């Protein structure tokens, strides 16, 4: 067993150790490595092993399965940010003849393209990729299971197509693009397409007896962008730091935030899928990351951006240990025991008197809202008492604002003035906000009853 716990309270370290010890025992994993990162720094790691040989640590490679898809999604978004593709482009525009119908790049990233979940037999995870030399071998005779865009349907072949898209546009292999564009800039030297020692061996554990069976580690060929990679707990936490803050050498902060906006809601309520990222909500917190599995291995990576905590769990067992669930629980243990201390409040560096005059109470019909000034000329609209739709807004060069979230995401907020320059109302996507409820004299659609507000005796 190895352990690292600098930076956490002893009671937190013990709670983390207890959770992973139970996971390794109850999940009957030959070995398990777990690690936690807070504010970009590795603050705890633990390894548990029930087999002989050197004990693994945060630098030991395990196969990470579908966490590979997040890396592939980053490569695709880089193409978009460089103007080489559009997310709304049909795949056929860049990769003709696939048989994927009218599926768009966006739909493939979010698993709503309607493609099949798996490649045709034989089981692709346990057979050489050389058995599927062409995309037609991956997609089969009936690639489409559902109309594109109609529902979330997880698709491994969909990410094979995205990897082939990267190769077609870049003119290099998916593995070369991954190494040059993500792994090298982020310093992920222990993340590779093939295992590099020290690495764990993959095992299956018999369901009714404590005996093991070796699992083959196949090279997946065209399916590699869906699940090929080997990585370590330490490397995956470097990747987690990038997914939290962005890195202009790889992908901007705005683009990595875009990845964790739900593109499709899954059938399990409370969860969704963004662009290469799974998203779950619960207990008032939002987690994003990905789970992964291949024969012999399970993996989980989850991030709480608000608390700036990430956790990784890697194990070398085909099933039995819910690695992703345990990783999420590790994030929750740290967030609850040692919540992030907020930065001190400080005033804005400067005051814009015109913007300051817009703050305060506004009404949409008879609902009351507050408008607050944010840094960089941003605005925040909040329903008073929680009854109504709120949002934050980013200032635009033309003097208007664009909604960043919720119902008003992408909508325009602008100030409408009278001929004398005074403010008549705020227009938010055609909704009129006035200083008084249905303010007399303001440009309220449908007008305001001249008799005004009345009681029962009128």
Topology diagram in text:
Elements: E1 2-4, H1 10-26, E2 31-38, E3 41-49, E4 62-63, H2 68-81, H3 91-94, H4 105-109, H5 135-139, H6 156-170, H7 174-183, E5 203-205, E6 212-214, H8 224-227, E7 230-231, H9 233-245, H10 253-259, E8 264-265, E9 271-273, E10 278-282, E11 285-294, E12 297-304, E13 309-315, H11 323-337, H12 353-358, E14 360-364, E15 367-373, E16 379-383, E17 391-395, E18 401-403, E19 412-417, E20 423-428, E21 431-434
Helix pairs in contact: 1-11, 2-6, 2-7
Question: How does this model look, in words?
Answer:
There is one protein chain. The chain has about 450 residues and is an alpha+beta fold. It has 2 domains: about 325 residues, DD-peptidase/beta-lactamase superfamily (Beta-lactamase); about 80 residues, Beta Barrel (Lipocalin), CATH 2.40.128. It is about 25% helix and about 25% strand. The chain contains 12 helices and 21 strands. The strands form 4 sheets. The protein has a 9-stranded antiparallel sheet, sandwiched between helices. Helix 2 crosses helix 6 and helix 2 packs across helix 7. The longest helix is centred in the N-terminal third of the chain and has 17 residues.
């Amino acid at each position: 067993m190895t352990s690292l716990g600098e930076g956490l309270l002893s009671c937190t370290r013990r709670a983390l150790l207890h959770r992973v010890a139970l996971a390794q025992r109850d999940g009957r994993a030959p070995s398990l490595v777990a690690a936690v990162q807070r504010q970009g720094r590795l603050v705890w790691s633990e390894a548990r092993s029930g087999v002989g040989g050197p004990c693994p640590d945060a630098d030991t490679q395990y196969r990470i399965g579908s966490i590979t898809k997040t890396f592939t999604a980053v490569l695709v978004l880089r193409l978009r940010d460089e103007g080489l593709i559009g997310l709304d482009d049909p795949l056929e525009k860049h990769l003709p003849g696939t048989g994927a119908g009218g599926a768009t790049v966006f739909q493939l990233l979010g698993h709503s393209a309607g493609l099949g979940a798996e490649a045709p037999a034989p089981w692709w995870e346990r057979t050489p990729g050389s058995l599927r030399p062409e995309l037609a071998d991956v997609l089969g005779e009936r690639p489409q299971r559902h109309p594109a865009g109609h529902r979330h349907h997880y698709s491994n072949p969909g990410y094979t197509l995205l990897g082939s898209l990267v190769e077609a546009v870049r003119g290099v292999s998916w593995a070369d693009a991954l190494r040059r564009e993500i792994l090298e800039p982020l310093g992920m030297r222990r993340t590779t397409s093939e295992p590099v020692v020290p690495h764990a061996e993959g095992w299956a554990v018999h369901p009714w007896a404590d005996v093991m069976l070796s699992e083959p580690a196949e090279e997946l060929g065209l399916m590699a962008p869906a699940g090929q990679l080997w990585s370590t707990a330490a490397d995956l936490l470097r990747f987690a730091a990038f997914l939290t803050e962005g890195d202009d050498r790889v992908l901007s902060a705005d683009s990595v935030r875009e990845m964790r906006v739900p593109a499709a809601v899954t059938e399990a309520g409370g969860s969704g899928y963004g662009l290469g990222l799974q998203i779950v909500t619960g207990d008032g917190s939002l987690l994003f990351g990905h789970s992964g599995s291949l024969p012999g291995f399970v993996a989980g990576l989850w991030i709480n951006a608000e608390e700036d905590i990430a956790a990784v769990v890697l194990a070398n067992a085909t099933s039995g240990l819910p690695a992703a669930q345990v990783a999420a629980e590790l994030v929750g243990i740290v967030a609850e025991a040692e919540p992030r201390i907020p930065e001190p409040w400080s005033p804005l560096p400067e005051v814009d008197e015109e913007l300051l005059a817009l703050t305060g109470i506004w009404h949409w019909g008879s609902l009351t809202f507050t408008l607050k000034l944010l840094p960089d000329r941003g605005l925040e609209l909040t329903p008073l008492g929680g009854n109504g739709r709120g949002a934050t807004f980013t200032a635009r060069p033309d003097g208007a604002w664009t909604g960043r979230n919720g119902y008003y995401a992408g909508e325009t907020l602008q100030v409408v003035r009278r001929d004398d320059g005074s403010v008549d109302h705020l227009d938010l996507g055609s909704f009129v906000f006035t200083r008084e409820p249905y303010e007399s004299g303001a440009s309220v659609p449908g007008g305001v009853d001249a008799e005004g507000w009345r009681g029962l005796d009128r």
